Amino acid sequence: MNIGIFGTGMVGQVLAPKLVELGHDVMLGTRNPAETLARNEKDNYGNPPFSEWHQNNPKVKVGTFAEAAAHGELLMNGTSGHGSLPALRAAGERNLNGKILIDIANPLDLSQGFPPSLYVGNTDSLGEQIQREFPALNVVKALNTVNAFVMVNPAILGNGDHDIFVSGNDAQAKQTVIAFLKSQFGWKDVIDFGDITYARATEGYLALWIRMYAQFQTPMVTIKVVK
Amino acid sequence: MNIGIFGTGMVGQVLAPKLVELGHDVMLGTRNPAETLARNEKDNYGNPPFSEWHQNNPKVKVGTFAEAAAHGELLMNGTSGHGSLPALRAAGERNLNGKILIDIANPLDLSQGFPPSLYVGNTDSLGEQIQREFPALNVVKALNTVNAFVMVNPAILGNGDHDIFVSGNDAQAKQTVIAFLKSQFGWKDVIDFGDITYARATEGYLALWIRMYAQFQTPMVTIKVVK
Fold first, then answer.
1. Average pLDDT over residues B106-131
2. pLDDT for residue B137
3. CB pair distance less than 8 Å for A201 and B193
4. Which of chain B's residues have a Cβ under 8 Å away from the Cβ of A204?
5. Measured between CB atoms, does B96 come within 8 Å of chain A?
6. What mean pLDDT do residues B206-214 have?
């Protein structure tokens, strides 16, 4: 399948090679591809520059947000929270409408350092902001509760015995995403978790996730629902 | 042990009999005991009036917030979020200072119906508000992530294989609470979860818990940490 992923950070760098390995044709979208590919310095977290990553992953295409959106039959939002709406605006409604967007972004405010707070939440969410601005895009909030390495390989934590939540307004789009997560990444427990307002719940959960990260000194942590 | 519990709602009505059964001397604190005991109508949720509950649980003492605070060597806050600071002000610093308060309350805003939002969160928490106003009280946020019936009997969900979080500024107070939860209620997995700012995480988690309640149609749901 042709898949477009917005963002060239950690989420895109982990998702794209996995999807290529699974046989998909993947394009990462970024604001300025030439600039992104020219970067040869480590990022703020000490990760290698994108150019080095891309040399190791030559099958992953890189284009503008609009090109990645046009490329994808299925779209994924792997930008930062603040970067999400600008990326989608640059992608353009014509390239988005009628498609499914798996929205993985979280509205983290890192301006005061770690731990971040959420710049939207409680009575609204980033998922809802995106859905409101792009009503003909099928926004499905998913995967935002786990580290990128867990997204594509849930079995690395607790033998895969934990849960992921999928929220969105379109029942068929949610079912497509649920089937995709199970068949491609091996998720066993995927919860059909209400309409897009439920993104308030899974984005709000980041308040707990971030503190677990801090307390346990690892982002490799998630939750299993017990009922 | 003498235990004082603020609030005569569901949390107090479940905690108190269990603690009495365990041999403790328990007093529930309320604004106006005579008025609370005189109630003979069901509450907004259809629960029996307090007077009926008290007839069935005569060993549980009922007093003012100040009397319950004076009575307790250990204190528990089982009021609503909005009721917490007024209850503690009525209890009085003299009856609170130097003691441990297990703060179970959540800052739920039910003014717009269900699902509630949180009236404080993200960069602050109810637990911190209480600790700031009563600096000589050892506030330990705990049990607020589960239904009252799970608080006193964790084994009723998933054979007890799930987690509870304990946050507070005083390490010794936290250890006392952790030991209490294990020995009295049978909690197996109690996480020492940082200082009182971590109450932002466990109160913020209510955003997820409330939606799980809505989606699964039961408050008998919690989480197990997987790492």
1. 97
2. 98
3. no
4. 204-205, 207-208
5. no
6. 97
